[in-house]
Amino acid sequence: MKVFRSRFILFLILCALLSAGLISNKVYAEAVYFVTQEGAGEKDGSSWKNATNDLRGLMDSLSGEAEIWVAAGVYSPGTGSDDTFPLKKGLKIFGGFAGTESVLEERDVKNNVTVLSGEGIIRNAAVVTAHSGASSANTRLDGFTITGGRNMMNGGGLYIEISSNPMIVNCIFSDNVTFSSGGGIYIFYSSPFILNCTFSGNASANESGGGVYSFYSSPTFENCLFLENEAFFGGGGIFNFSSTPIVINCNFIGNRSSFRGGGMTSRGSTILVTSSTFYGNYGEEFGGGMHNEDSFGEIKNSVFSNNRTSPGNGGGMANVNSTIEVTGCEFTMNTADFYGGGMVNLNSSVKISDCVFSRNEASRFNGGGMVNWTSAVTISNSSFSENIAITGGGIYNHNSSPVMENNVFSENRARRGDDDIDSSVIEN
Fold first, then answer.
1. Predicted local confidence at residue 414, as pLDDT
2. Mapped to the 3 state alphabet, what secondary structure does 90-139 carry?
3. Contact (CB, 8 A) for 108 and 136
4. Which tens digit of pLDDT belongs to each residue from 282-326?
5. Domain ranges of the chain
6. Tens-digit pLDDT profile for residues 16-63
7. What is the percent of the chain with per-residue pLDDT over 90, rounded to a whole number?
8. Is residue 181 a contact partner of residue 204, using CB atoms and an 8 Å limit?
9. Cα 273 versus chain centre, distance
10. What is the DSSP letter of 52?
């Protein structure tokens, strides 16, 4: 009875304190720390009134699970060659605050721009480094603009270490450069979730993956925009090496590669791309929109339009030594100087169904809509219209005999040879 009476009295005291406003009724799942650009009060990060201005120091000091709320402003990891913001296992870091909010839902990411900046300093580190052991449930980077990374190694904006699977949400990666691979993000043996993010104007100066480089990894990209990123070798938007990416509802616009895959390149990978758009990308040698090599892929309900390769092959898509299934896709107004305005298949096994190939052009050689070169191809329920080439306005086959079922050809044009389907079988 005495124990019950003591607990009841304690309960009454707590209720009185809450009513008087002497203690907060806010309950956090984890400890929450507060950061503003100038800091305030005691600068211990315990509240907005005592916010710290040392984001890097706070991230370094924390262990276990915690949240960090960061107000609008520009924050630097430091000026040293190895300085980086450490995204440790268990940290959830949110930007986009005005500095007065009491609940997460009150923040306004668009109007309270929160920047993590590498300040254009050439270093041996990315602006942010995601540490090993992170999971999507306990580690998050949300609501930031990551910019000004200049990494001599891999990863200009963000480097994701081995076995690190954080959530990267509502972030903008812009103007980050790596002198190796992964201008925006480099993913190393990991499986991050990247949602509602924009990759704009990032570059891989000497290697691949202007926006993102995925190395033996399984990232998921959903609702992301890849805009005008550039890579030297391949994958202006994304480069996948021995990876299994999932790409859902993403847009690849105006990305460039000096060799292969302006929008995306995959080598030795298994890819799933659905409900995505590849528009106005450029790859010099293969695949203005997408290049797949030694890979398996499923591409569904996606649009390839106004992509270009010059001089090269496969304006919309190039498949080399790959097994690819393309369903419900549109290839329109793509251009290749050499072969396959819409698509080129080289030594590949390709299944195409319910697709549209329209107004594509191979300006100097063959296959306005498609070229099949020593490949096993099945095409069904698809249409080829108004495609243009020197020979094979719709399709050009070399050492290939595609299985055709229920397809429509109309108004394709060849300057020499057949307007719709042209085959050239050459004995070696």
1. 85
2. CEEEEEEECCCCCCHHHCCCCCCCEEEECCCCEECCCCEEECCCCCCCCC
3. no
4. 999 999 999 999 999 999 999 999 999 998 999 999 999 999 999
5. 29-258, 289-428
6. 434 444 333 333 446 999 999 999 999 999 999 999 999 999 999 999
7. 86
8. yes
9. 12
10. B
Region of 139 (left: φ > 0; alpha: ψ -120 to 50; beta: rest) is beta
Q: How many Å apart are CA 227 and CA 37, to the nearest integer?
A: 29
Q: Which two tokens stand for residue 118?
A: 């590498």
pLDDT at 128 over 50: yes
DSSP 290-356: EEEES-EEEEES-EEES-EETTSB-SSEEEES-EEEEES-EEES-EESSS-SSEEEES-EEEEES-E
- With beta carbons less than 8 A apart as the criterion, state whether 25 and 61 touch: no
Characterize 219-240 residue by residue with b for buried, 16 or more Cβ atoms within 10 angstroms of its Cβ, and e for exposed: bbbbbbbbbbbbbbbbbbbbbb
Dihedral sign computed on CA atoms, order 280, 283, 286, 290: negative
Tokens coding 252: 């690849």
Q: Is 421 exposed, middle or buried (0-12, 13-18, 19+ CB in 10 A)?
A: buried
- Asked whether the beta carbons of 172 and 146 are under 8 A apart, the reply is yes
Sequence-distant (≥ 6) Cβ neighbours of residue 396 within 8 angstroms: 339, 340, 362, 366, 367, 370, 371, 372, 389, 421, 422, 423, 424
- Which helix (DSSP H) or strand (DSSP E) does residue 167 occupy? strand 167-169
Give the SS3 label for residue 56: helix
| Of 47, 45, 64, 66, nearest in space to 55 by CA | 45
Question: Tokens 């959903």 sit at which residue?
Answer: 222
Q: What are phi and psi of 413, to 5 degrees?
A: -140, 130
In DSSP terms, 361 is beta-bridged to 335, 388
Q: How far apart are CA 70 and CA 312, in angstroms?
A: 47
The structure tokens listed for 389 are 């080439």
Place of tokens 């268990």: 90
Structure confidence at residue 9 (pLDDT): 40
Q: Mention every residue, 6+ apart, whose C-beta is less than 8 A from residue 149.
A: 118, 126, 127, 155, 156, 157, 176, 177, 178, 183
User: Phi and psi dihedrals of 107, rounded to 5?
Assistant: -70, 155
Cβ distance 46 to 33 under 8 Å? yes
Contact 130, 105 (CB under 8 A): no
Dist CA 271 CA 268 (whole Å): 10
